[in-house]
Amino acid sequence: MSFDLKIVGGTVVDGTGAPRREANVGIKDGRIVEVGECKDSANETIDAEGAIVTPGFVDIHTHYDGQVSWDADLAPSSLHGVTTAVMGSCGVGFAPVREKDRTRLIELMEGVEDIPGTALAEGIPWGWESFPEYMQAVDFPHAMDFGLMATHDALRVYVMGERALANEIATDEDIAKMKALVGEAVKAGAFGFSTGRSDNHRAKDGSATPASEAGARELAGIASALKDFDYGVLQAVSDFDMDVSEENFDKEFDIVEAMAKAGGGHNMSISLMQRDNVANQWRQIIQRCEAAEKQGIKIHMQVAARAIGVLLGLEATFHPFMGFPSYKAISQLPLEQRVKAMKDPAFKERILKEKNDKVAGDGSPIPPLADTLLANLEFVTLKLFRLGEHPDYEPKLEDSLYYEGRKQGKGALETVYDALLESDGKELLYFPLYNYIDFDLNNVSTMLHHPLALPGLSDGGAHVGTICDASFPTFMLTHWARDRKSGGFELEQVIRMLCQDTSRFVGLKDRGNIAVGQRADVNVIDFQKLRLLRPRLVGDLPGGGKRLLQDAEGYRATLVAGQVTARAGKLTGALPGRLVRAGR
Fold it and tell me: Is 335 helix (H, G, I), strand (E, B) or coil?
């Protein structure tokens, strides 16, 4: 037997957690057909000497729901070893939809996930109403495989119309219709159903999302659609209302637990993170998940690989001076001209004496959190760091701009101002918002080590002007499997988490391992040289919209169904990826 392609000389880390071993990998017709000597000839050979050979990564939390309809590349995830992505997280999506509601769904996605509305409006080709029609519309060749989830906000708007936008209580008839639509979607191959219950998620106009206040009866009723299938997952994001009271926390978790139970009791994930105002909430979420498991209700916890933070910069969605009158006067100039103006001593002196106007509200895509940060800038600079050319995502307190300013005898605002102008105005400042209360990632380590944890929350395709966390898989390898001195993981564990754990959770059994019969979704990685570079802003979205992309060094090759989709960190143009229909 001759191979289409074989990978030789590498160290196989097969995704099961088993010890790494030296082996070659033979591929034919998009499948792995041999792991061992692979003596037969091949049309193409990849030299993996000194590299590890792993399964492709499966990302279970992305937001490419609009981008997938016009963009075959699905970057930046496709540049970080991801070969299958699941989108439709947090309850926001684009199907089912009536023509009159398209703009409303765009505004929801723009507000919740920081994706430019103009890009979505110009890029999405529409032409569908039902979820199966949406699936058909996006089922064309891509750089990687992807799966879709039915989303609560779209369902509610489709079934309830204006009543959904007013957050009215769903009737029994409404719930029955939404349940039927979820059943229709899952029967067509949707991976499940997602809902969003976070107060931080708002539409572009600042209004609450349609599903944010849905009750237990509605959520359980919709989720029960999954009982008719032997596949399908549920996903939810919630604040759990502990900042109001612990009683509210328990009530909210009861709702989530009822949803999980109604869906079959074994197929749900929720977001887990540490927030400043409720620092111990994450531990109580873990306790409730453990208690639920003892009752036969398995609720997995999606954990971010690092702090969930915001990138600030003159080209990013947000920076501390965007509300200052002097800056607003130059805000429409090209970056080079803005930097030149800001370097003028007189301009600097003037702007540092000004008070900023509010930047959120009145239809602004800037979240209310931005005004809170501006109002507490002195405190914010304690957790504000330069990102640098080779980002440090676990910086020390003494490296913050606050301490830098103190050492130089400068105020907080002037320190931030000067930092933003570095690298010709392309410098990005890193503000770790969640998971960084103690100025380290020790709590993240505890979360990731929990047996119910799943690596997630990368938000690939979302928050395009404020984060670039689609690089989470790369960070999992560099930080947790290689560089961190304590609290890390063995390489075999991280690969299992990124591949087998995530793929099996969403019901994919044909990928996630380097084994005979598995899909040939494979990464060849120079593990010792793997590193992340500073995110960069590119204007390649429809309508001239900008987004952050982050490159990595060390990926020799990524294969999807046996075809090389990326070499040395660059996409090859091969498009073997397609829509994955769950249950097929």
Answer: helix
Count CB neighbours of 308 within 10 A: 21
φ/ψ of 45, rounded to 5, equals -125, 135
CA distance 301 to 156: 25
pLDDT score recorded for residue 366: 64
DSSP H stretches of helix in 192-263: 216-223, 246-262
Determine if the pTM surpasses 0.85. Answer: yes
Question: 379 pLDDT band (50/70/90 cuts)?
Answer: confident
Per-residue pLDDT, 79: 97
Peptide bond preceding 432 in cis form (omega within 30 of 0)? no
In the predicted model, is pLDDT for residue 363 greater than 80?
no
CATH code, domain with 175: 3.20.20.140
Q: Is the pLDDT of residue 434 over 70?
A: yes
Q: Does residue 206 register a pLDDT over 80?
A: no
User: Considering the domain boundaries, does residue 517 fall inside one?
Assistant: no
The DSSP annotation for 415-434 comes to HHHHHHTTGGGT--EEEEEE
Instruction: Examine the domain organization and report whether 423 and 445 are in the same domain.
Output: no
Write out pLDDT tens, residues 29-60.
Answer: 999 999 999 999 999 999 999 999 999 999 99
In angstroms, the CA 278 to CA 247 distance is: 14
For residue 367, name the pLDDT band (cuts at 50, 70, 90).
Answer: low
Would you give the distance in Å from CA 510 to the centre of its chain? 23
Beta bridge partners of 548: 537
Top pLDDT among 77 and 368 is at 77
In a 3-state reduction of DSSP, which class is residue 389?
A: coil
H helices, E strands: number in the chain: 20, 27
Helices marked H in 426-506:
442-449, 472-475, 491-496, 502-505
| Type and span of the H or E element at 291 | helix 281-294
Burial class (CB in 10 A: 0-12, 13-18, 19+), 251: middle
> Domain boundary at 409, 434, 459, which?
434
Q: How far apart are CA 76 and CA 550, in angstroms?
A: 7
95 lies in the same domain as 220: yes
Residues spanned by the domain of 280 = 57-307+441-507
Sort strands 308-312 and 429-434 into parallel, antiparallel or unpaired. antiparallel
Asked if residues 498 and 522 have their Cβ atoms less than 8 Å apart, the reply is: no
Contact yes or no for 367/200 (Cβ under 8 A): yes
* DSSP H or E stretch at residue 86: strand 82-87
Q: Residue range 124-128: average pLDDT?
A: 97
Please check whether residue 516 lies inside any domain of the structure: no
> Are 259 and 128 within one domain?
yes
Look up residue 584 and give its two tokens.
Answer: 């097929």
pLDDT tens-digit readout, 487-545: 999 999 999 999 999 999 999 999 999 999 999 999 999 999 999 999 999 999 999 99
pLDDT bucket at 244, cuts 50 / 70 / 90 = low
Tokens of 432: 């770790």
Question: 226 is written with which tokens?
Answer: 């999954």
How many angstroms separate the Cα of 264 from the Cα of each of 195, 220, 224, 267? 17, 10, 7, 7
Contact 227, 268 (CB under 8 A): no
Looking at the structure, tell me whether residues 421 and 544 fall in a common domain: no
In a 13 Å sphere around the CA of 389, the CA atoms on its Cβ side amount to 3
Query: How far is 42 from 471, CA to CA, in rounded Å?
Result: 32
